[in-house]
Amino acid sequence: MTEFDGSAQSWSLVAFCAVVTVTLLLCVMTGPDRDDLAEFYTGYRTMSPLRNGLAIAGDYISAATVLTIGGVIALCGYDGVVLALSMTLSLMLLMFLLAEPLRNTGRFTLGDALSRRMPGRSVRITTCAVTLIALLPMMLVQLASTGQLLAYILGFTGSTMKTGCVVGVGALMIAYAAIGGMKGTALIQLLKMVMLLGSGAVVAVLVLRAFDWDPGALFTAAAEHSGAGQAYLRPGLQFAAGEHPRLDMISTQLTIVLGAACLPHVTMRMYTAGSARQVRRSMSWAVTAVAVFAVVITVVAVGATALVGREGLAAADPRGNTAYLLGSRAAFGAHLSRPETLLFTSVTTALFLTLLASVAGMILACANSLAHDVFATRSKPPGPQRETMLARVCALVVGVPAILLATLVQDRSLQPLATASFCVGASALAPALVYALFWRRCTRAGLLCTLIGGTLAVLVLMPGTSLVSGSPTAAFPGLDFHWFPFTTTGVASIPAGFLCGWVGTMLSGRSRKDRQRRLYDRVEPRILAGTALPRARAGAPPVTGGGG
Amino acid sequence: MSHDPHSPHPSSPVPPPHIPSWSVSALPHPWPPDEEPVEEPVAHARDGDPAEYEGDLPTRPLRRALPHRARGHHGDLRMLRRAYRRQRRVATLAALGYFVAFLLLSAYEPSVMTRPVTGGLSTGLLLGLVQLPVTWLAVLLYEYTARRYVDPLAARVRRHTPPDPLARAAEGEGLVGPGR
C-alpha cells in the first residue's frame, strides 16, 4: 500500500533505470586492469581524502542503517536519537584507535593485518570465516528489504515481483563488486553519499520550515502524534517491553559503538589510503559526513512522526522502516508540483542507490577475504591475474547463496540478523583487532580464541534473545523459546570475546608469550609509523602518499 | 621463526634490477639491517624516503636480536609510542567516557535528562544533539595534535625502517605479470 501518486512512481522508475545504467558504466570504466592486484584490492591508493572519506561513509551507512534508524527515531524518539549518536561515535572511535595502525599493517584484507603479527594460515582462515559470518546476515537484511522497499516505492504488491527484484538487484550488486573492484564500488558509494546527503538536507530544511524553524515545536508536535506522549522524548521507549530495559539499552548502544565500525567492509577502506595522514583525513571527512547524516535523519524521521503520526507509520510498516520515505513525502505537502516531484524522486533514487551500494561493498569484502586469505595462501600462490579472477569468482560464490537465502527470509522480521552482525563485529573482531595491534603478549592461540570464542558466544546467545521469539515483532512471533532477556548479546558476548583472548594467551605458556613480545617489538615500528612506499617504478603510475 | 607463506619463493623469476636481492629472500622481518643505514643518498630523493638507499644495503639478510639495534631508532620509537599512546588514550577515553556517562544518566537518572531546557527540548535531547558539533571539533582537534606531535616522530622512525618487503614483493609480482 503506498500513497505515492502515479507520477512520482513513474519518475522513480525512470530514475532507477538511469541509475543502474550509469553505475554499471562507471564500474566498467573504472574497473581495474587485469594484472594488477593492488588496483583491484585497494584502488591504487590514488583517491583523494575527500573521496575516500565519502566512500567510507557510504560503506558505513547501509540501507538497513537508514531504514532502521529512521524507524526507531520515528517510533521511539529519544532512543532513536541515541542510536544515531552511537553510529557516529563508532566511526569516530575507529578513527582514533584503529584507523592508522590498520592502514600501516594491513595490505588488502583484515587477514593481512592480523597475520602481520601471527604469520600463518590459521589466523587468516579464521579471520575469513569470521568475516563471512559477520557480513552474511547484513547482506541478507539488505537484500531482503530490497523487495519490500521497491514494492513500496513503485507500487506493486505481488510476491513474485518482490522476489524478482531481490534476484535482479542481487545480480547487479555481484556485478558491481566483480567488475569494479574497490575503486568502482568506491565511486558508487561516493555517488550515493552525495545524493543521500544532498536530498536529505533539502528535505530536512523543508521539514524545519514547516515548523517555522523551531526544533522545539517539531519535537513537541512529534510527541503529540507519537501515541506515547511525553515518553517519546524520554529514554526507554524502545526497550520498555523487555525485562531489564536499562541494562538492555546500555548494552545495545555499546554493542553498536564497538561493532559497527569494526565490520570488514568498513575497515577494508582503510587500506586504500596512501599514508597515515591520508587515512586520518579521509576518516575526518567520513565522520563529518556521518554526523551530518545523523542530524538529517533525526529531523526527517521526527518530522515523519509529527506530520504523519504513529498510525500512518505503523500502517505502512510495523517497525517503521518506511519512516524516512514517508517523512520526505510529507514534507512536500499534499500536492506535488513538478520540481517537488523531482526532488522526491531524488530521495527515492538515493535510497535505491543506497541499497545497491551497500551489498556491493559487503560482497567485495567477503570476496577479497576468501580469495586473498584462503585461496591465495596455499603452497603455490597464484599470479596476480589469477588472483584477480579468483576474487571475481568468489564474489559470485558469496553472492549467489546470499540471494537465495534472502528470498527465503524476506517475509520475516530481519532485526535479529542485523543485530547478530553487529554483535559478531563487537565480540570477535573488535577484541581481535585491539589485541593484535596493541597487546604485546598476545599469542596466536589467544587471537584464535578471541575470534572463535566471540563468534560462538554470539551464535549461541542470539537465538535465545527476545528478537527471535517471544514478542509480536520478533522473527518467529508465534513461538517463544527466548531465555536470554536482552535484545542484543553484547552484554555477555563482548566480555566473553575479550576474556577468551586473555585466557588463550595466558594458557599459551611463558616462552610463547616472550616470543610474541619480541615479535611485537619488531613489528611495532610498522604498526605505529608505517613504512614509506617504495618509489614508483619506471613506467608505472605514481604512487601517492609516503612521508606524512 | 615463523615464515609468512605469502612471501615469494626464492625460485621466482629474476627480479627487476632496482629491487635489491636481499628483499626477495624468504625472510620478511621488518627490522633494519644491523649496520646503520648509510646516509640519505642522492639529491633527487624525496625527504624521508628510505626506499632510496636500497642500493647501498648489504646483500644478505641479517638477523640480530633487538638490543643490538641502533640506539637512536629505539629512542625515537619509544617517544613515538608514548606520544601515540597518550593521544589515543585521551581521545578514546574522552569520547567513550562522555557517551557512557550520557547513557548511564539517561538510564538511571531520567529526571535529570527530561528537564526541559529551551522550547520543547529536554536536557537529554539537547546533550545528545550537541554531541554532533562536538564530534566535529573533536575530529579537528585530533588531526591537529596528530599532525603536530605524532607525525614528526613517525617520520623519524620511518626513516630507519626499511620498506615493506611484502609490498615490494607485490610490486615485483605486478611487474612480472603477463609473462608468467
From TrEMBL, chain B:
Residues 61-71 have a biased composition (Basic residues). InterPro entries: DUF485 (IPR007436). Residues 1-71 are annotated as: Disordered. Keywords: Membrane, Transmembrane, Transmembrane helix. The chain crosses the membrane at residues 90-108, 120-142. Residues 8-19 have a biased composition (Pro residues). It holds the Pfam family DUF485. This is DUF485 domain-containing protein. It comes from Streptomyces griseoaurantiacus.
